[in-house]
Amino acid sequence: MSKNLTLEIPDEVFSNFQRQAESKGETAEKFVLEIVLKNSPKINGGLSEQEKDQALEELMKFSGSVNSENPRSGDNEQIDADLAKEYGKDL
């Protein structure tokens, strides 16, 4: 099901939409609808599989980008000991 929506926008904004739409071989209405769909919240509130894959790919660019130069920096027992030493408490 779909609904009609009438928007009142300035002429220069419509002209810009129309130029961009024409450059893609589309109508201004279709061009604006694509913008609305791309920028609106997802109906199910989640990301599509393609969006999840893209987000993971972007995140993985940072994987391994920090080097603490401490071979035990991922050791939870060492982290607990360091925190206890720093804050003077046994964890």
What helical percentage do the residues reach? 40-55%
Spell out the helices and strands N to C.
HHHH
Shape: elongated
The tally of beta strands, per DSSP, is 0
Report the uncertain regions: none
Work out the radius of gyration: 25 Å
Number of helices: 4
Compute the average pLDDT: 86
Distance between the termini: 58 Å
Q: Structural class, judged by helices and strands? A: mainly alpha
Q: Strand portion, in percent?
A: under 5%
Major sheet details: none
Keywords for this entry:
91 residues, mainly alpha
Secondary structure blueprint with pairings:
Layout: H1 11-23, H2 28-39, H3 49-60, H4 76-87
Short structural summary:
The chain has 4 helices and no strands. It has helices spanning about 10-25, 30-40, 50-60, 75-85. The mean pLDDT is about 85.
